[in-house]
Amino acid sequence: MDLIEVDLDKLGTAVSDWKSAADKLKIAADNARKGMQAKSDKARWAGANASVTRGFVSKTTKEVADLHTEADSIYRVLDDAHTELVSLQKQIQVAHGEVQKRGIRVDDYGDGTVHCVYPHIRGDTDVHTPEENEARDELQARIGRILSHASEIDASVTRALRKSHGSDPHNAGHSSYKSLDEAQVERAAELAKLGPKMTDKQFTELNSIMKWNAKDADFSTGFYKSLGGPEETLDFYGRMALEGTQGDDKERLALTRQLQRNMGNALATATDPDNKPHLSASWGEEFRKLGTQSIEIDPGAPNSPYGYQILGGLLRYGSYDSEFINPIAEHIVQLHHKEPEFFMNNKPVTGGVDLDWGYNPSGKAGAGYDPLTSVLEGLGHSPDAAKKFFSDDMTPTVYNEDGTVKKGATLDYDYYDELTKKDFEWLGDSLVHPGSDEAAHARDGGPDALGHALEAATLGYAYDDPTPTPSRDATSAAIMEKVVQTYGDPENVKDPISDSLGRMGAGYIDDLNWGLNENRTDSLFTPTDPEGHAQFGSNNAIKFLSSIGQHPDAYSEISVAQQIYGTSALEAQVDGDRINEPHAREIVRTGAEIQGILDESRADQVQAEGLAKDAAYNKSLAEKTEWIKFGAGVGIAAGAAFLPPVAAVGVAGTLIPVFMDAGQGALTQQIGTVIGDSAETRQQDSANTIQDQRREIFRAGRVAAASPMEAFMADHGIRHDDGGFGQDLEDAQNGGYLKGTNGEDQLGVLPTA
After folding, report:
1. d(C-alpha 547, C-alpha 571), whole Å
2. How many whole angstroms separate alpha carbon 714 and alpha carbon 670?
3. Phi/psi at 489 (nearest 5 deg)?
4. Phi-psi category of 365—alpha, beta or left, where left has phi over 0 and alpha has psi -120 to 50?
5. Would you tell me how many other CB atoms lie within 10 Å of the CB of residue 138?
């Protein structure tokens, strides 16, 4: 933890001294060049002077110039290092303050890793709350990241200074750098040239450099240029991916997975035209041309991968600009439309190997042989690009097989309709044997990736963003209207995409409430600003909720989201001692209607599939509400409630709109109370018969539907038996829930088996 105490002012002084030295040496070098060198060049030397004096003057002039170059290089490297280390020191000091406040001890192992513990206090039980343990773990991870970054800077600076100075103290003029980035690019390029021959230590060093610089345009652009070009990039990554995923070397696989992430993030940075510098547009054009060409990364192999199969591994990470990724996505979808098996016919002969990650070392959503899945994952991390890709306003560009533009041609389909049609052929992106357990899920990667891309397009943030901010506009809302209509048909909803649909529904829970009011202009749910709001209509909203309610993850997302939204909406009706009672009744009624639709759908699905299905619902609900037990408060900001990710789930958090007029102050506690109370009443075990289980579903559902109302009444002293407002709220809740169950039964969709 030396970073906390180190006096960076001394480094700042060294920067100033080297700046001064470099400036003075520049003057000396200019004087030498314009003075004695110029005079020497004009002089008519004769005899010994012709060979000795002229040479001496030239050598002296060069040495002075070299000294300036070396001093300037040292100054620039130190200046960059000082700037970055000052920032990191501020971050570590903030973390240290939190450590002291919580009474945590930090054990520094001296190798860049730390361990945070609560020291034993005599007489204490050493039992800490989940919230305390979570805070400790977060601090440990944060401190580790800061120290790791500082360590990488230290190593890079040491290496750059050594090369700038050279090994000969009597001879200036060695490696020179205009920035620390340039020095880091040089080292990364040296390591990359080793390819699969890199030792694990060298591989770790490359990953460390790339991890902390992947989002730096100077480094990322320089690194990709150092590889040579698009073809050399594919060759390097392809060889590294195959070498790192073969055999059972877990450490090598972990390093390869890090490289995949780092190179993807760096490619996104380097190809963003808003960054300076950035790679030219020709890189995207060349990637398209290489997309359907064989890249011989393993001479003598029976088949070589196509360029898109290798590139897909990189596209899975990084937030890409639409100018780069969308033409690639268009080309890939068009190739799939023309010949779905084009890429999968090029799978390698495995010789009986059951598991392979190919060009997707992460192993998530496919092995990497189908670039369609890969590019959809890329769109899932690139919200603006995804929104443009699925927008009705997009005019497709038609491409030839070789990636060149087919001038004058038009498509007779759009990409949203193409990818969401019922008979779309999702391929089994895997090398597993047919009939195995893995083969049963081999086709899940594509729909899963499509869901991620649609999340990004409709919600405005990457599907796995751990700290998202709401970003809905007219285009994203228009796409969401299509999503609700499309997936109101249960035949279109497969398990792999259902969790994404649940998160999208949660992100538009305000508009689902408005939709059940037929999007009336006089509805209390009518937004004051229509920008970013979708109009679903009652029938589409019911069918959508009915359809996704058949899937546990989607059911739990919407159920929890409605409780949060309903809580905020009720609180917004309070103005001092006055409550807008008609609005409060409508909020309770509509929220109960949504829960009733979900519960009827769930009960029908359990009846269709059996008791085992209900265990999945209970498990999902438990996970969605588990954060309450961890003590993780709901963040309320910018008109949305943020449910932080849960360790047991391992996914990003969920953003849920809160009512437009709700204050932020007390909402956190109120929402926590509502979800906590609801969680306590969830089903613990499945019943013995379907009918018993249906009864239990509706009992627990009624409690969930009523939880915002019950908390509201308790907070504001409203009694159930007062014969007035309290009874009105209870009647609204009962009537809304009954309307929801009946509405789903009459207007919803049939369960799927």
Report:
1. 30
2. 11
3. -95, 115
4. left
5. 13
**What confidence score (pLDDT) does residue 245 get?**
87
Q: Which of 423-432, 476-485, 647-656, 701-710 has the lowest mean pLDDT?
A: 647-656
Supply the pLDDT for residue 429: 82
For 108, list phi and psi in degrees, rounded to 5.
-95, 115
Q: Where are the beta strands (DSSP E) in 72-212?
A: 105-108, 114-117
Half-sphere exposure for 742 (CA within 13 Å, toward CB): 6
157, 78 contact by CB (below 8 A): yes
C-alpha torsion sign, points 131, 133, 139, 141: negative
pLDDT at residue 752, as a whole number: 80
Most confident of 101-115, 157-171, 718-732: 718-732
Q: How confident is the model at residue 33 (pLDDT cuts 50, 70, 90)?
A: low
**Where does the pLDDT of residue 580 fall: very low under 50, low under 70, confident under 90, or very high at 90 and above?**
very high
Contacts with 519 (C-beta within 8 Å, 6 or more apart), sequence order: 526, 535, 536, 537
pLDDT of res. 631:
39
Q: Does 305 sit behind a cis peptide bond, omega within 30 degrees of 0 on the bond before it?
A: no
CA gap 641, 667 in Å, rounded: 9
Tokens found for residue 523: 């509805």
Cβ atoms 191, 206 nearer than 8 A: yes
- Asked if 625 and 675 touch (Cβ cutoff 8 Å), the reply is yes
**Interacting residues of 10 by C-beta distance below 8 A, sequence separation 6+:** none
Residue 628 has, within 13 A of its CA and on its CB side, a CA count of 20
User: What is 392-448 written as a DSSP string?
Assistant: TT--PPPB-TTS-B-TT---SS-HHHHHHSTT------S-PPTTSTTGGGTTSHHHH
Letter for the amino acid at 278?
H
- Which pLDDT score is estimated for 174? 60
Alpha carbons 260 and 265: distance in angstroms, whole number: 9
State the Cα–Cα distance between residues 553 and 460, nearest whole angstrom: 21
In the chain the first and final C-alpha atoms are separated, in Å, by: 58
Largest CA distance in the chain: 122
Q: What is the mean pLDDT of residues 370-378?
A: 96
* Residue 164 pLDDT: 67
Rounded Cα gap, residues 71 and 172, in angstroms? 10
Dihedral angle over CA of 7, 8, 9, 14, nearest 10: 120
Other C-beta atoms closer than 10 Å to the C-beta of 147 total 21
Neighbours of 301 (CB within 10 A): 12
Query: Tell me, what amino acid is at 555?
Result: Y
For 464, the token pair is: 């796995």
**SS3 helix, strand, coil % of the chain, rounded to 5?**
60, 5, 35
Percent of the chain's residues with pLDDT above 90:
48
Do residues 476 and 387 lie in contact, with contact meaning Cβ atoms separated by under 8 Å?
yes
Q: Is the pLDDT of residue 567 over 70?
A: yes
Contacts of 8 (CB under 8 A, 6+ apart): 82, 85, 86, 89
From the list 493, 613, 507, 637, the residue with the least C-alpha distance to 552 is 613
Q: What is the mean pLDDT of the chain?
A: 83
Rounded distance, CA 711 to CA 656, Å? Answer: 19
Pair 518, 498: CB distance under 8 Å? no
Q: Which position has the higher pLDDT, 58 or 254?
A: 254
Half-sphere exposure of residue 143: CA atoms within 13 angstroms, side-chain side = 30
DSSP letter for 381, please.
T
Angle between helix 552-571 and helix 509-516 axes, rounded to 10 deg: 80
C-alpha–C-alpha distance, residues 718 and 711, integer Å? 10
CA 700/CA 606 separation, integer angstroms: 15
Distance CA 116, CA 138 (A): 10
**Least confident interval from 44-58, 566-580, 734-748:** 44-58
Is a pLDDT exceeding 50 seen at residue 648?
A: no
- Nearest CA to 488 out of 499, 501, 475 is that of 501
Q: Tell me, what DSSP letter sits at residue 634? A: P
